[in-house]
Amino acid sequence: MALRHGGQILVDQLKLHGVRRVFSVPGESFLAALDGLYESGIQNIVCRHEGGAAMMAEAMGKMTGQPGIAFVTRGPGATNASSGIHIAMQDSTPMIMFVGQIARGHRDREAFQEVDYRAMFAPLAKWVAEVDDTERLPEYIARAFHEAVSGRPGPVVLALPEDMLSGTADVADARPAPQIAAPSLAGPARATAAKLARAERPLVIVGGPHWSPEAAKDLARFASDWNLPVALGFRRQDYIDNRHPNYVGDLNVGINPKLAQRVRDADLLLVLGSRLGDIETQGYTLIDPAAPAQEICHVHADAGELGRVYRPDLGVVATAPEMIAALADLEATPRDGAWANGGRQDYLSWLEPKETPGAVKLERTIKWLSENLNPDAMIANGAGNYAAFLHRYFHYKEFRTQLAPTSGSMGYGFPAAISAKLEHPARTVVCLAGDGCFQMTLNEMSTAAQHGAAVIVIVCNNGRYGTIRMHQEKTYPARVSGTDLANPDFAALARAYGGHGETVEKDAEFPAAFARAEAAGTLAVIELKLDPEMLSTGQSISQARASAQT
Hints:
Blueprint: E1 4-5, H1 6-16, E2 21-24, H2 31-37, E3 43-46, H3 50-64, E4 68-72, H4 76-90, E5 95-101, H5 117-121, E6 127-130, H6 137-149, E7 155-161, H7 162-166, E8 168-169, H8 186-198, E9 202-206, H9 213-226, E10 230-232, E11 247-250, H10 257-265, E12 268-272, E13 295-300, E14 314-317, H11 320-328, H12 338-350, H13 362-372, E15 378-381, H14 385-393, E16 402-403, H15 413-423, E17 429-434, H16 435-439, H17 445-451, E18 456-461, H18 466-475, H19 490-496, E19 500-504, H20 510-520, E20 524-529, H21 541-549
Protein backbone atom coordinates (compact mmCIF):
# COMPACT_ATOMS: atom_id res chain seq x y z
CA MET A 1 0.00 0.00 0.00
CA ALA A 2 1.02 3.62 -0.44
CA LEU A 3 -0.08 7.00 0.80
CA ARG A 4 -3.07 8.37 -1.11
CA HIS A 5 -5.01 11.56 -0.57
CA GLY A 6 -8.66 11.19 0.35
CA GLY A 7 -9.92 12.08 -3.11
CA GLN A 8 -7.87 9.26 -4.63
CA ILE A 9 -9.03 6.80 -1.97
CA LEU A 10 -12.63 7.78 -2.69
CA VAL A 11 -12.34 7.37 -6.45
CA ASP A 12 -10.49 4.06 -6.14
CA GLN A 13 -13.39 2.84 -4.01
CA LEU A 14 -15.88 3.96 -6.68
CA LYS A 15 -13.96 1.98 -9.29
CA LEU A 16 -14.09 -1.14 -7.09
CA HIS A 17 -17.89 -0.77 -7.02
CA GLY A 18 -18.11 -0.57 -10.80
CA VAL A 19 -18.89 3.14 -11.14
CA ARG A 20 -18.50 4.30 -14.76
CA ARG A 21 -20.01 7.76 -14.66
CA VAL A 22 -20.64 10.49 -12.10
CA PHE A 23 -22.55 13.77 -12.32
CA SER A 24 -21.22 16.93 -10.73
CA VAL A 25 -21.09 20.67 -10.39
CA PRO A 26 -17.52 21.43 -9.32
CA GLY A 27 -16.72 23.16 -6.03
CA GLU A 28 -13.57 24.07 -4.14
CA SER A 29 -14.76 21.94 -1.22
CA PHE A 30 -14.00 18.69 -3.08
CA LEU A 31 -10.97 19.55 -5.21
CA ALA A 32 -9.23 16.39 -4.03
CA ALA A 33 -12.09 14.27 -5.39
CA LEU A 34 -11.88 16.06 -8.74
CA ASP A 35 -8.16 15.28 -8.75
CA GLY A 36 -8.95 11.65 -8.00
CA LEU A 37 -11.28 11.52 -10.98
CA TYR A 38 -8.50 12.76 -13.28
CA GLU A 39 -7.28 9.82 -15.43
CA SER A 40 -9.52 7.46 -13.40
CA GLY A 41 -11.49 6.27 -16.41
CA ILE A 42 -14.71 7.38 -14.70
CA GLN A 43 -16.65 9.83 -16.86
CA ASN A 44 -17.46 13.07 -15.05
CA ILE A 45 -20.58 14.73 -16.51
CA VAL A 46 -20.26 18.38 -15.58
CA CYS A 47 -23.72 19.89 -15.08
CA ARG A 48 -25.02 23.44 -14.84
CA HIS A 49 -27.03 23.15 -11.63
CA GLU A 50 -26.82 20.75 -8.72
CA GLY A 51 -30.52 19.90 -9.03
CA GLY A 52 -29.90 18.71 -12.58
CA ALA A 53 -26.81 16.74 -11.51
CA ALA A 54 -28.76 14.99 -8.73
CA MET A 55 -31.65 14.16 -11.08
CA MET A 56 -29.23 12.71 -13.66
CA ALA A 57 -27.65 10.56 -10.95
CA GLU A 58 -31.08 9.43 -9.78
CA ALA A 59 -32.01 8.45 -13.34
CA MET A 60 -28.77 6.48 -13.59
CA GLY A 61 -29.76 4.58 -10.45
CA LYS A 62 -33.21 3.87 -11.91
CA MET A 63 -31.76 2.53 -15.14
CA THR A 64 -29.01 0.35 -13.71
CA GLY A 65 -30.24 -0.69 -10.26
CA GLN A 66 -26.85 0.43 -8.93
CA PRO A 67 -26.32 3.71 -7.07
CA GLY A 68 -26.17 6.78 -9.28
CA ILE A 69 -23.36 9.07 -8.12
CA ALA A 70 -23.42 12.85 -7.73
CA PHE A 71 -20.80 15.29 -6.42
CA VAL A 72 -21.91 18.72 -5.20
CA THR A 73 -20.31 21.42 -3.15
CA ARG A 74 -21.26 22.56 0.32
CA GLY A 75 -24.06 24.94 1.28
CA PRO A 76 -25.84 26.21 -1.84
CA GLY A 77 -24.70 23.17 -3.84
CA ALA A 78 -26.20 20.73 -1.36
CA THR A 79 -29.45 22.66 -0.96
CA ASN A 80 -29.82 22.91 -4.75
CA ALA A 81 -29.33 19.15 -5.03
CA SER A 82 -31.90 18.26 -2.37
CA SER A 83 -34.67 17.99 -4.98
CA GLY A 84 -32.89 14.99 -6.51
CA ILE A 85 -32.49 13.36 -3.10
CA HIS A 86 -36.22 13.72 -2.47
CA ILE A 87 -36.98 12.08 -5.82
CA ALA A 88 -34.65 9.16 -5.06
CA MET A 89 -36.24 8.62 -1.65
CA GLN A 90 -39.85 8.62 -2.87
CA ASP A 91 -38.95 6.54 -5.93
CA SER A 92 -36.85 4.02 -3.92
CA THR A 93 -33.86 4.66 -6.20
CA PRO A 94 -30.29 3.76 -5.16
CA MET A 95 -28.13 6.87 -5.19
CA ILE A 96 -25.10 8.31 -3.39
CA MET A 97 -24.42 12.02 -3.17
CA PHE A 98 -21.02 13.24 -2.01
CA VAL A 99 -21.13 16.74 -0.54
CA GLY A 100 -18.12 18.93 0.13
CA GLN A 101 -17.96 20.23 3.68
CA ILE A 102 -16.08 22.92 5.61
CA ALA A 103 -12.84 22.01 7.38
CA ARG A 104 -13.36 20.07 10.59
CA GLY A 105 -11.74 22.74 12.79
CA HIS A 106 -14.27 25.38 11.69
CA ARG A 107 -17.44 23.55 12.70
CA ASP A 108 -20.20 25.22 14.72
CA ARG A 109 -19.06 28.77 13.90
CA GLU A 110 -21.47 29.21 10.99
CA ALA A 111 -18.45 29.23 8.74
CA PHE A 112 -18.76 30.04 5.04
CA GLN A 113 -21.44 27.75 3.55
CA GLU A 114 -21.60 25.60 6.71
CA VAL A 115 -24.59 23.23 6.95
CA ASP A 116 -25.31 20.36 9.32
CA TYR A 117 -26.01 17.73 6.66
CA ARG A 118 -27.14 15.09 9.10
CA ALA A 119 -29.93 17.39 10.24
CA MET A 120 -30.69 18.72 6.77
CA PHE A 121 -30.97 15.41 4.93
CA ALA A 122 -32.26 13.19 7.77
CA PRO A 123 -35.90 13.25 6.56
CA LEU A 124 -34.93 13.12 2.87
CA ALA A 125 -32.29 10.40 2.66
CA LYS A 126 -32.01 6.78 3.72
CA TRP A 127 -28.68 7.36 5.48
CA VAL A 128 -26.58 10.49 6.10
CA ALA A 129 -23.06 10.56 7.50
CA GLU A 130 -19.98 12.76 7.66
CA VAL A 131 -16.52 11.24 7.26
CA ASP A 132 -14.12 12.65 9.85
CA ASP A 133 -11.11 10.39 9.26
CA THR A 134 -9.36 9.88 5.91
CA GLU A 135 -8.51 6.29 6.87
CA ARG A 136 -12.20 5.46 7.24
CA LEU A 137 -13.21 6.55 3.73
CA PRO A 138 -13.26 2.97 2.35
CA GLU A 139 -15.46 1.82 5.24
CA TYR A 140 -17.97 4.64 4.81
CA ILE A 141 -18.14 4.33 1.05
CA ALA A 142 -18.61 0.56 1.16
CA ARG A 143 -21.43 1.04 3.66
CA ALA A 144 -22.96 3.78 1.50
CA PHE A 145 -23.21 1.38 -1.45
CA HIS A 146 -24.70 -1.32 0.77
CA GLU A 147 -27.26 1.05 2.33
CA ALA A 148 -28.29 2.45 -1.05
CA VAL A 149 -29.28 -0.94 -2.49
CA SER A 150 -30.33 -3.05 0.52
CA GLY A 151 -33.94 -3.55 1.56
CA ARG A 152 -35.90 -0.65 0.13
CA PRO A 153 -33.26 1.17 -2.00
CA GLY A 154 -32.76 4.88 -1.53
CA PRO A 155 -30.37 7.82 -1.46
CA VAL A 156 -27.32 8.13 0.78
CA VAL A 157 -25.55 11.41 1.53
CA LEU A 158 -21.89 11.47 2.59
CA ALA A 159 -20.40 14.80 3.69
CA LEU A 160 -16.67 15.18 3.09
CA PRO A 161 -14.79 17.84 5.11
CA GLU A 162 -12.28 19.40 2.73
CA ASP A 163 -9.27 18.92 5.04
CA MET A 164 -10.19 15.25 5.55
CA LEU A 165 -10.49 14.80 1.80
CA SER A 166 -7.13 16.41 1.06
CA GLY A 167 -5.44 14.51 3.88
CA THR A 168 -3.42 11.35 3.19
CA ALA A 169 -3.62 7.82 4.52
CA ASP A 170 -2.11 4.40 3.94
CA VAL A 171 -5.26 2.29 3.98
CA ALA A 172 -6.62 -0.74 2.17
CA ASP A 173 -9.71 -0.54 -0.01
CA ALA A 174 -12.89 -2.07 1.41
CA ARG A 175 -14.41 -4.87 -0.65
CA PRO A 176 -17.97 -4.45 -1.92
CA ALA A 177 -20.59 -6.17 0.21
CA PRO A 178 -21.36 -9.71 -0.99
CA GLN A 179 -24.74 -10.55 -2.44
CA ILE A 180 -26.88 -12.25 0.18
CA ALA A 181 -28.66 -15.36 -1.04
CA ALA A 182 -32.42 -14.99 -0.92
CA PRO A 183 -34.32 -17.49 1.24
CA SER A 184 -36.56 -19.99 -0.48
CA LEU A 185 -39.91 -18.49 -1.46
CA ALA A 186 -41.52 -21.84 -2.23
CA GLY A 187 -43.69 -21.73 0.90
CA PRO A 188 -44.85 -18.09 0.58
CA ALA A 189 -45.49 -18.63 -3.14
CA ARG A 190 -47.69 -21.65 -2.44
CA ALA A 191 -49.58 -19.74 0.27
CA THR A 192 -50.14 -16.85 -2.15
CA ALA A 193 -51.24 -19.24 -4.89
CA ALA A 194 -53.78 -20.83 -2.54
CA LYS A 195 -55.32 -17.44 -1.85
CA LEU A 196 -55.40 -16.64 -5.57
CA ALA A 197 -57.12 -19.93 -6.32
CA ARG A 198 -59.88 -19.13 -3.81
CA ALA A 199 -60.37 -15.52 -4.88
CA GLU A 200 -63.16 -14.57 -7.28
CA ARG A 201 -61.91 -11.09 -8.18
CA PRO A 202 -58.11 -10.96 -7.67
CA LEU A 203 -56.05 -8.02 -8.90
CA VAL A 204 -52.25 -7.90 -9.19
CA ILE A 205 -50.66 -4.52 -8.44
CA VAL A 206 -46.97 -4.14 -9.33
CA GLY A 207 -44.63 -1.27 -8.50
CA GLY A 208 -41.63 -0.26 -6.46
CA PRO A 209 -37.92 -0.96 -7.10
CA HIS A 210 -35.82 -3.94 -8.21
CA TRP A 211 -37.70 -4.68 -11.44
CA SER A 212 -35.93 -6.17 -14.48
CA PRO A 213 -36.58 -7.45 -18.02
CA GLU A 214 -36.69 -11.01 -16.66
CA ALA A 215 -39.26 -10.01 -14.07
CA ALA A 216 -41.40 -8.42 -16.79
CA LYS A 217 -41.36 -11.71 -18.69
CA ASP A 218 -42.20 -13.69 -15.54
CA LEU A 219 -45.09 -11.36 -14.79
CA ALA A 220 -46.44 -11.70 -18.33
CA ARG A 221 -46.28 -15.51 -18.10
CA PHE A 222 -47.81 -15.60 -14.61
CA ALA A 223 -50.68 -13.28 -15.61
CA SER A 224 -51.44 -15.35 -18.72
CA ASP A 225 -51.27 -18.73 -16.99
CA TRP A 226 -53.55 -17.67 -14.13
CA ASN A 227 -55.65 -15.24 -16.23
CA LEU A 228 -55.12 -12.41 -13.74
CA PRO A 229 -55.62 -8.67 -14.36
CA VAL A 230 -52.45 -6.66 -13.77
CA ALA A 231 -52.40 -2.97 -12.77
CA LEU A 232 -49.16 -1.04 -12.52
CA GLY A 233 -48.20 1.56 -9.94
CA PHE A 234 -47.79 5.27 -10.59
CA ARG A 235 -45.07 5.81 -13.19
CA ARG A 236 -44.17 2.12 -13.27
CA GLN A 237 -45.93 1.61 -16.62
CA ASP A 238 -42.99 -0.18 -18.23
CA TYR A 239 -43.10 -3.17 -15.85
CA ILE A 240 -45.14 -5.18 -18.36
CA ASP A 241 -45.79 -4.72 -22.08
CA ASN A 242 -48.93 -2.59 -22.14
CA ARG A 243 -50.14 -4.61 -25.14
CA HIS A 244 -50.39 -7.73 -22.95
CA PRO A 245 -54.01 -8.96 -22.83
CA ASN A 246 -53.99 -9.02 -19.02
CA TYR A 247 -52.75 -5.46 -18.54
CA VAL A 248 -55.61 -3.27 -17.25
CA GLY A 249 -53.95 0.13 -16.71
CA ASP A 250 -51.96 2.14 -14.21
CA LEU A 251 -52.87 3.67 -10.86
CA ASN A 252 -52.02 7.31 -11.50
CA VAL A 253 -53.33 10.77 -10.64
CA GLY A 254 -55.67 10.70 -13.65
CA ILE A 255 -56.81 7.12 -13.08
CA ASN A 256 -59.40 5.45 -15.27
CA PRO A 257 -62.54 5.57 -13.07
CA LYS A 258 -63.35 2.00 -14.06
CA LEU A 259 -59.93 0.82 -12.88
CA ALA A 260 -60.44 2.66 -9.61
CA GLN A 261 -63.74 0.81 -9.19
CA ARG A 262 -62.01 -2.48 -10.02
CA VAL A 263 -59.61 -1.91 -7.12
CA ARG A 264 -62.59 -1.32 -4.83
CA ASP A 265 -64.40 -4.40 -6.15
CA ALA A 266 -61.42 -6.76 -5.90
CA ASP A 267 -61.61 -9.38 -3.16
CA LEU A 268 -57.85 -10.05 -3.20
CA LEU A 269 -54.94 -7.70 -3.97
CA LEU A 270 -51.57 -9.26 -4.74
CA VAL A 271 -49.21 -6.30 -4.24
CA LEU A 272 -45.72 -6.87 -5.63
CA GLY A 273 -43.12 -4.27 -4.65
CA SER A 274 -45.48 -1.30 -4.36
CA ARG A 275 -45.87 0.56 -1.07
CA LEU A 276 -49.52 1.32 -1.97
CA GLY A 277 -48.98 5.05 -1.59
CA ASP A 278 -51.56 7.78 -1.78
CA ILE A 279 -51.40 8.10 -5.59
CA GLU A 280 -52.05 4.39 -6.18
CA THR A 281 -54.88 4.42 -3.63
CA GLN A 282 -56.31 7.84 -4.58
CA GLY A 283 -55.57 9.39 -1.21
CA TYR A 284 -56.08 6.09 0.63
CA THR A 285 -59.73 5.95 -0.50
CA LEU A 286 -59.65 2.90 -2.79
CA ILE A 287 -58.31 0.77 0.04
CA ASP A 288 -59.19 1.73 3.61
CA PRO A 289 -56.05 1.57 5.79
CA ALA A 290 -58.13 0.94 8.92
CA ALA A 291 -60.38 -1.78 7.50
CA PRO A 292 -59.57 -2.88 3.96
CA ALA A 293 -62.46 -4.47 2.11
CA GLN A 294 -59.95 -6.52 0.12
CA GLU A 295 -57.70 -9.32 1.32
CA ILE A 296 -54.09 -8.21 0.82
CA CYS A 297 -51.00 -10.26 0.00
CA HIS A 298 -48.13 -7.79 0.20
CA VAL A 299 -44.61 -8.53 -1.06
CA HIS A 300 -41.86 -5.99 -0.31
CA ALA A 301 -38.10 -6.15 0.18
CA ASP A 302 -38.26 -4.03 3.34
CA ALA A 303 -40.00 -5.66 6.31
CA GLY A 304 -40.69 -2.18 7.68
CA GLU A 305 -43.05 -1.47 4.77
CA LEU A 306 -45.24 -4.49 5.54
CA GLY A 307 -47.91 -3.24 7.91
CA ARG A 308 -46.65 0.35 7.86
CA VAL A 309 -49.95 1.61 6.36
CA TYR A 310 -51.88 -1.52 5.39
CA ARG A 311 -51.85 -4.68 7.54
CA PRO A 312 -51.55 -7.52 5.03
CA ASP A 313 -53.29 -10.85 5.42
CA LEU A 314 -50.07 -12.36 4.07
CA GLY A 315 -46.80 -10.42 4.17
CA VAL A 316 -43.66 -11.62 2.39
CA VAL A 317 -40.22 -10.04 2.74
CA ALA A 318 -38.73 -10.41 -0.74
CA THR A 319 -38.07 -8.39 -3.86
CA ALA A 320 -40.90 -8.36 -6.36
CA PRO A 321 -38.81 -10.15 -9.05
CA GLU A 322 -37.91 -12.95 -6.62
CA MET A 323 -41.54 -13.49 -5.74
CA ILE A 324 -42.89 -13.29 -9.28
CA ALA A 325 -40.28 -15.83 -10.40
CA ALA A 326 -41.43 -18.22 -7.68
CA LEU A 327 -45.09 -17.69 -8.56
CA ALA A 328 -44.53 -18.10 -12.30
CA ASP A 329 -42.96 -21.52 -11.72
CA LEU A 330 -46.01 -22.89 -9.89
CA GLU A 331 -48.71 -24.87 -11.61
CA ALA A 332 -51.49 -22.44 -12.45
CA THR A 333 -55.09 -22.74 -11.36
CA PRO A 334 -57.12 -21.85 -14.46
CA ARG A 335 -59.91 -19.37 -13.90
CA ASP A 336 -62.77 -17.83 -15.81
CA GLY A 337 -61.56 -14.94 -17.97
CA ALA A 338 -64.47 -12.56 -17.47
CA TRP A 339 -62.87 -10.58 -14.63
CA ALA A 340 -59.53 -10.05 -16.42
CA ASN A 341 -61.13 -9.52 -19.83
CA GLY A 342 -63.45 -6.90 -18.40
CA GLY A 343 -60.48 -5.00 -17.02
CA ARG A 344 -58.73 -5.13 -20.36
CA GLN A 345 -61.75 -3.81 -22.20
CA ASP A 346 -62.07 -0.97 -19.70
CA TYR A 347 -58.42 -0.09 -20.39
CA LEU A 348 -58.83 -0.18 -24.19
CA SER A 349 -61.90 2.05 -23.96
CA TRP A 350 -59.90 4.50 -21.84
CA LEU A 351 -57.38 4.80 -24.72
CA GLU A 352 -60.00 6.32 -27.00
CA PRO A 353 -58.87 9.97 -27.27
CA LYS A 354 -60.94 12.74 -25.78
CA GLU A 355 -60.50 15.59 -28.23
CA THR A 356 -58.97 18.78 -26.88
CA PRO A 357 -59.14 22.27 -28.41
CA GLY A 358 -56.52 23.69 -30.76
CA ALA A 359 -54.71 22.91 -34.01
CA VAL A 360 -52.14 20.77 -32.16
CA LYS A 361 -53.86 18.07 -30.13
CA LEU A 362 -51.55 16.45 -27.62
CA GLU A 363 -53.58 13.25 -27.53
CA ARG A 364 -52.79 12.74 -31.23
CA THR A 365 -49.11 13.54 -30.75
CA ILE A 366 -48.79 10.93 -28.00
CA LYS A 367 -50.70 8.37 -30.07
CA TRP A 368 -48.29 8.97 -32.98
CA LEU A 369 -45.28 8.51 -30.70
CA SER A 370 -46.76 5.32 -29.25
CA GLU A 371 -47.34 3.86 -32.71
CA ASN A 372 -44.09 4.99 -34.38
CA LEU A 373 -41.25 4.96 -31.83
CA ASN A 374 -39.10 1.85 -31.57
CA PRO A 375 -40.19 -0.42 -28.70
CA ASP A 376 -36.93 0.34 -26.84
CA ALA A 377 -37.27 4.13 -27.15
CA MET A 378 -37.07 5.82 -23.76
CA ILE A 379 -39.53 8.49 -22.62
CA ALA A 380 -38.64 10.82 -19.75
CA ASN A 381 -40.98 13.35 -18.19
CA GLY A 382 -41.42 15.49 -15.13
CA ALA A 383 -44.76 16.76 -13.88
CA GLY A 384 -47.54 18.85 -15.34
CA ASN A 385 -50.87 18.67 -17.10
CA TYR A 386 -49.13 17.37 -20.24
CA ALA A 387 -47.97 14.22 -18.41
CA ALA A 388 -51.55 12.95 -18.07
CA PHE A 389 -51.71 12.61 -21.86
CA LEU A 390 -48.53 10.52 -21.84
CA HIS A 391 -49.74 8.21 -19.07
CA ARG A 392 -53.09 7.68 -20.72
CA TYR A 393 -52.25 7.32 -24.41
CA PHE A 394 -48.73 5.88 -24.64
CA HIS A 395 -48.12 2.11 -24.75
CA TYR A 396 -44.88 1.14 -22.99
CA LYS A 397 -43.55 -2.03 -24.61
CA GLU A 398 -40.26 -2.84 -22.86
CA PHE A 399 -38.89 -2.52 -19.35
CA ARG A 400 -37.04 0.67 -18.48
CA THR A 401 -38.44 2.76 -21.28
CA GLN A 402 -40.12 5.10 -18.77
CA LEU A 403 -38.21 7.56 -16.61
CA ALA A 404 -40.55 9.63 -14.46
CA PRO A 405 -40.61 10.72 -10.81
CA THR A 406 -43.21 9.20 -8.52
CA SER A 407 -42.51 12.23 -6.32
CA GLY A 408 -44.16 14.44 -8.96
CA SER A 409 -41.10 16.64 -9.39
CA MET A 410 -41.19 19.22 -12.16
CA GLY A 411 -37.99 19.66 -14.15
CA TYR A 412 -37.02 15.97 -13.91
CA GLY A 413 -37.61 14.84 -17.49
CA PHE A 414 -34.78 16.70 -19.22
CA PRO A 415 -31.91 15.77 -16.86
CA ALA A 416 -33.21 12.18 -16.77
CA ALA A 417 -33.28 12.09 -20.58
CA ILE A 418 -29.68 13.32 -20.75
CA SER A 419 -28.62 10.58 -18.34
CA ALA A 420 -30.54 8.01 -20.40
CA LYS A 421 -28.96 9.08 -23.70
CA LEU A 422 -25.46 8.93 -22.21
CA GLU A 423 -26.18 5.41 -20.95
CA HIS A 424 -27.94 4.27 -24.15
CA PRO A 425 -26.54 6.38 -27.01
CA ALA A 426 -27.97 4.11 -29.74
CA ARG A 427 -31.56 4.36 -28.47
CA THR A 428 -34.06 7.13 -29.16
CA VAL A 429 -34.56 9.17 -25.99
CA VAL A 430 -37.46 11.60 -25.83
CA CYS A 431 -38.14 14.13 -23.10
CA LEU A 432 -41.76 15.24 -22.91
CA ALA A 433 -42.02 18.46 -20.92
CA GLY A 434 -44.40 21.29 -20.29
CA ASP A 435 -43.25 24.85 -20.79
CA GLY A 436 -43.09 25.36 -17.02
CA CYS A 437 -41.48 21.97 -16.40
CA PHE A 438 -38.78 22.43 -19.06
CA GLN A 439 -37.79 25.89 -17.86
CA MET A 440 -36.83 24.50 -14.46
CA THR A 441 -33.85 22.60 -15.91
CA LEU A 442 -33.39 23.76 -19.51
CA ASN A 443 -30.00 25.21 -18.58
CA GLU A 444 -28.83 21.60 -18.86
CA MET A 445 -29.02 22.04 -22.65
CA SER A 446 -25.45 23.19 -22.22
CA THR A 447 -24.62 19.89 -20.50
CA ALA A 448 -26.29 17.91 -23.28
CA ALA A 449 -24.37 19.84 -25.94
CA GLN A 450 -21.03 19.49 -24.13
CA HIS A 451 -21.35 15.74 -23.64
CA GLY A 452 -23.09 14.86 -26.89
CA ALA A 453 -26.43 13.75 -25.48
CA ALA A 454 -28.73 13.88 -28.53
CA VAL A 455 -32.01 14.07 -26.64
CA ILE A 456 -35.24 15.03 -28.42
CA VAL A 457 -37.29 17.38 -26.27
CA ILE A 458 -40.98 17.90 -27.03
CA VAL A 459 -42.08 21.07 -25.25
CA CYS A 460 -45.83 21.34 -24.68
CA ASN A 461 -46.27 25.11 -24.62
CA ASN A 462 -49.64 26.29 -23.37
CA GLY A 463 -48.30 29.42 -21.67
CA ARG A 464 -49.17 28.39 -18.13
CA TYR A 465 -48.68 26.03 -15.24
CA GLY A 466 -51.43 23.78 -16.58
CA THR A 467 -52.09 21.44 -13.66
CA ILE A 468 -52.29 24.26 -11.15
CA ARG A 469 -54.51 26.26 -13.49
CA MET A 470 -56.81 23.25 -13.87
CA HIS A 471 -57.21 22.97 -10.10
CA GLN A 472 -57.52 26.74 -9.82
CA GLU A 473 -60.42 26.82 -12.28
CA LYS A 474 -62.17 24.04 -10.36
CA THR A 475 -61.70 25.65 -6.96
CA TYR A 476 -61.57 29.39 -7.69
CA PRO A 477 -63.09 29.76 -11.18
CA ALA A 478 -62.20 32.89 -13.20
CA ARG A 479 -59.78 34.08 -10.47
CA VAL A 480 -56.48 33.52 -12.28
CA SER A 481 -53.51 34.03 -9.97
CA GLY A 482 -49.89 32.99 -10.40
CA THR A 483 -50.33 30.45 -13.20
CA ASP A 484 -49.56 32.38 -16.41
CA LEU A 485 -46.10 32.11 -18.00
CA ALA A 486 -44.03 34.33 -20.28
CA ASN A 487 -42.01 31.91 -22.41
CA PRO A 488 -38.99 32.16 -24.69
CA ASP A 489 -38.78 30.88 -28.25
CA PHE A 490 -37.80 27.34 -27.24
CA ALA A 491 -36.73 26.33 -30.75
CA ALA A 492 -34.46 29.37 -31.07
CA LEU A 493 -33.01 28.64 -27.63
CA ALA A 494 -32.10 25.12 -28.73
CA ARG A 495 -30.34 26.53 -31.78
CA ALA A 496 -28.46 28.96 -29.54
CA TYR A 497 -27.02 25.94 -27.70
CA GLY A 498 -25.92 24.45 -31.03
CA GLY A 499 -28.87 22.10 -31.31
CA HIS A 500 -31.81 21.62 -33.65
CA GLY A 501 -35.03 23.51 -32.97
CA GLU A 502 -38.38 23.98 -34.63
CA THR A 503 -41.96 24.86 -33.83
CA VAL A 504 -45.08 22.86 -34.65
CA GLU A 505 -48.39 24.70 -34.97
CA LYS A 506 -50.51 22.01 -36.68
CA ASP A 507 -50.89 18.26 -36.05
CA ALA A 508 -49.87 17.38 -39.59
CA GLU A 509 -46.47 19.04 -39.11
CA PHE A 510 -45.34 16.84 -36.23
CA PRO A 511 -44.22 13.58 -37.93
CA ALA A 512 -41.86 15.38 -40.33
CA ALA A 513 -40.57 17.61 -37.54
CA PHE A 514 -39.78 14.56 -35.40
CA ALA A 515 -37.98 12.89 -38.33
CA ARG A 516 -35.82 15.98 -38.79
CA ALA A 517 -35.06 16.10 -35.07
CA GLU A 518 -33.93 12.46 -35.12
CA ALA A 519 -31.84 13.00 -38.24
CA ALA A 520 -30.11 16.02 -36.70
CA GLY A 521 -28.06 13.73 -34.40
CA THR A 522 -27.82 16.43 -31.77
CA LEU A 523 -29.86 17.98 -29.01
CA ALA A 524 -33.24 18.82 -30.54
CA VAL A 525 -36.26 20.75 -29.32
CA ILE A 526 -39.72 20.57 -30.91
CA GLU A 527 -42.02 23.20 -29.49
CA LEU A 528 -45.73 22.36 -29.70
CA LYS A 529 -47.95 25.43 -29.76
CA LEU A 530 -50.92 24.23 -27.73
CA ASP A 531 -54.24 25.98 -27.20
CA PRO A 532 -54.15 27.64 -23.76
CA GLU A 533 -57.71 26.36 -23.23
CA MET A 534 -56.56 22.72 -23.33
CA LEU A 535 -56.79 20.54 -20.23
CA SER A 536 -55.94 16.87 -19.75
CA THR A 537 -59.50 16.18 -18.65
CA GLY A 538 -60.63 16.77 -22.25
CA GLN A 539 -62.42 19.92 -21.13
CA SER A 540 -61.41 23.43 -22.04
CA ILE A 541 -60.66 25.92 -19.29
CA SER A 542 -63.92 27.72 -20.02
CA GLN A 543 -65.81 24.43 -19.67
CA ALA A 544 -64.04 23.63 -16.38
CA ARG A 545 -64.86 27.13 -15.13
CA ALA A 546 -68.52 26.81 -16.09
CA SER A 547 -68.70 23.37 -14.46
CA ALA A 548 -67.20 24.72 -11.24
CA GLN A 549 -69.58 27.67 -11.14
CA THR A 550 -72.61 25.37 -11.44
